[in-house]
Amino acid sequence: MNILVTGPNGFLAKNVIKKLKKANHNILEVSYKDSLASYKDQIVKFQPDVTIHFAWFGGNNYNDATSPNQFYKNVPQSIELLGYLRECNKHQTFIGLGTACEYGEFTSPVDELDKEDPFDLYGLSKLTFKNYSQVFCKVENLNWIWIRPFYVYGPGDVPTRLVPKVINALLDNKDVIFDECRSIVDYLYIDDFVNAIAAIVDKHTEVYGVYNICSNKQYKVRDIISEIKEIIPHTGQVVFDPLLNKKRQNYTCGSNAKLKRTIKWNPKVSIRVGLIKTIKNIQNERKQ
Predict the structure, then answer these.
(1) Following DSSP, what letter does each residue of 228-280 receive, concatenated?
(2) Could you point out which of 26, 41, 48, 103 has its C-alpha 20 to 30 Å from the C-alpha of 162?
C-alpha cells in the first residue's frame, strides 16, 4: 500500500512510520520544514492509497497552544495538502490527526458524540481543519478519518513534556517542584497508539469518522510523577507546592469504546510498564 505521511520527524509519526515500514508499505515522507509545494509532483506521482497528516506546528506548551500561529502556520498548509490529493486519481483515505483539546472542558470521559468546545487556539485550529477536511473529503469522494489522541508517552517523546522532563530531572538527582498537579488525564503508551493506527490503516476502507485513541483510564498527574519517583533511585526531592501559581487543572480523559468496536483493538501496556520502558530508553540514550 502507498502511504503518505506528513511530519515524519514528530514523536507520533516516527513510530508509526517504523511500524508501517515493517509491514512492507511504501512510505512517502513529507516534512513541513521544506516547502510543501516542492512535494506536489512527488505526491501526485506517488498516488497514495492513504494519507496520514501528522504535521502541525506547536501545541506542546502553553505559549504555542495560545498563539495565532496555530492557524497561520498550520491550516493553510493543511488545506494545500488536500489540494494536492485532489489531483491524485485513485480512491484514497485521508487520516487527520486531531487532539483531545478539541473537546474542551469535561468532567467525565468524552466520546466522539460529545460536542467540541476547545479552550485554546491549538484545539480550535485542529477543530477548524477537522471540519474543513471532512467536507472536502465528502465533496472529493475521499474516505475521511479523524484521530484524536489523548496523552501519548514513551521513548522518543518531546523532552519538554511531563514524563521525560521528570525522568531526566530525577536521573540527574535534581529537585523538582510542581504545583499540586491535580489534573486528571488519560495516558497511553506509544506502542499501543502505533498499533491502533496500523490497524486503522489495514482496515481503512471499512473505517470512517472520528475516533479517540486513548487508554480509557484516568490518572492524576501527581500520581504519574510519584510513580516515576518510585521507579528511579534518586537523591533529589519531588515537591508539590500548593502555594505555587496554578495552571489550569484539566480533566482530559476519553472513551475508546468506538475504536475497540471498529478495529478490535485494546491497549496492552500498563502505565508502570510503559514508564519503566521509557526510563530505560532515556537511560540508554544518556549513556551514548
Answers:
(1) HHHHS--SS-EEE-TTSPP----EE-B--HHHHHHH-------HHHHHHHHHH
(2) 103
**Cα 198 from Cα 207, distance rounded (Å):** 12
- Picking from 194, 176, 160, the residue whose alpha carbon sits closest to that of residue 61 is 160
| Assigned C-alpha cell, 39 | 512535494
How do the domains of the chain map onto residue ranges?
2-287
- pLDDT beyond 90 at 135: yes
Q: Are strands 219-220 and 184-185 parallel, antiparallel or unpaired?
A: antiparallel
CB 24 within 8 A of CB 38: no
With cut-offs at 50, 70 and 90, classify the pLDDT of residue 37.
Answer: confident
Going through 102-230 in order, the beta strands assigned E by DSSP cover 143-149, 151-153, 176-178, 184-185, 187-189, 209-213, 219-220
Say which amino acid occupies 188. L
User: Cβ neighbours of residue 180 under 8 Å, at least 6 residues apart?
Assistant: 222, 240, 241, 242, 246, 249
C-alpha cell at 117: 468546545
